Amino acid sequence: MAERKEKFYITTPIYYTNGLPHIGHTYTTVVADVLRRYKKMRGYDVVMTTGTDEHGVNVERAAKKAEIPESEFVARMAEAWRALWDELGLTADEFVRTTDLTHVRTVQWLFKLCKENGYVYKGHYTGQYCIYDNAYVNDAKPGDPCPDCGRPTETVTEENYFFKLSAFQKPLLDFYKKYPEFIQPETRKNEIVSFVEGGLKDLSITRTTIRWGIPVPGEEPHVFYVWFDALTAYLSAVGGPEYEKRGMWPADVHLVGKDIIRFHTVYWPAFLMAAMLPLPKQVWAHGWFLMDAAKMSKSKGNVVLPRPIAHMLGMDALRYFLLREVVFGQDGNFSYDALVTRYNSDLANGLGNLASRTAAMLEKNFAGKVPKPGTALPQDNALAKEAQNAIGEVLERYDRFEFARALEAIWGVVAAADKYLTTEQPWALGNSPDEESRKATILWTTAELLRIVTVLAHPVLPESTTKVWRLLGQSTSIGATELDGLRWGQLAPGLSLGKFQALFPRVEKSEAIERIEAMANEELSPRPAAAPTATPAASAPVTGTGAVPAAAPAEKIGIEDFTKVEMRVGQVKTAERIVGADKLLKLTVDIGTEIRQICAGIAQYYEPESLIGRKVVVVVNLAPRKLRGVESNGMIVAASVGPEGRPVLAGFHEDVEVGARLK
Ligand code: MSP
Question: 13 C-alpha vs ligand 1 centroid, how far in Å?
Answer without folding.
Answer: 7
